[in-house]
Amino acid sequence: MVRYLLRLGYIGTKYSGTQKQINVAESKTIQNVIEMALLKLRSQNVPITCFASRTDKGVHALMNALHVDLDHKIPDEIYQPHHIKRVLNTYFTENNHEIVVTNACVVPDEFHARFHAKWRSYYYRIAVLKPGFSNVPLKHCQDHLPICEVNRCYVVPSELNTSIVKNVTDMYCGEHDFSTFTKYMGRTPWKSPIRFVEECRFYESSYPNFIDDPQYSNISLWEFYIKSQSFLYHQVRKLVGTAIAAGLGRLKLHDVKHMLEVPGAENWIKSKMPSPGGLYLAHIHYDKKDFLMNDVSPHDSIDTEETMSSQMRHI
Is the Cα torsion angle 79, 81, 87, 91 positive or negative in sign? Predict the structure, then answer.
């Protein structure tokens, strides 16, 4: 039995998240689809995957990771990583799945995709209407979005004060109890709501558009970036929604400060949680020492965050 680490990206629009779920069709979760694809290898064992990070329904990934154990059907043989990658990607293409395995490598038996991850990062893409579209209600902002950006970002009115959004993102950095910014905390009392946010930024995108669509002249694209070892359920989207609400004048900075300093669901000042389509799992980082490099070089196995970020405009 050999353990493999697979890195993959996907467009999450038509999937009900990564994790297998009861009463959800096999083709509707990322985990189910990948395990069905792995059956094409005809291994001796039934492949069971373990993901580094779970993403919700409609959320995308520039790079997620998983490990899986495979026992070759021929004794003393192992599956070559490039063969696994080719078989899976062929299956995804033939079955119209928006999933791509970008890398595969052999790892030690004790390697765990989730528990060995040192940190994770997310992007949230926001389209801000240009000043010529002032006073457009939030529910109608989508009308001015380029077709290629539908379910790929969240569009907000031109009145968004980006300087205030930047001030809010600065407040998120460091160690906080994020109980206010999650859901179902009461159902998992053993989990600590304290997280250390190593980096959080809001900036105008360096990739304004990737196709010549005149609708792009209606918007400017911005990115919310956040990096931490782990995140709570719905934490990133609630943080983004709070920052947007402040930028639109619906919350004051002292409201955000109160939610951080006095944590708890009862202190959540309700603001619209942005859609899952704007959220991208950007990167899972591991230490090189945790890897056993058999068939690929360290450069191929340990993708840099810059490489994954550069793929964002193409996914």
Answer: positive
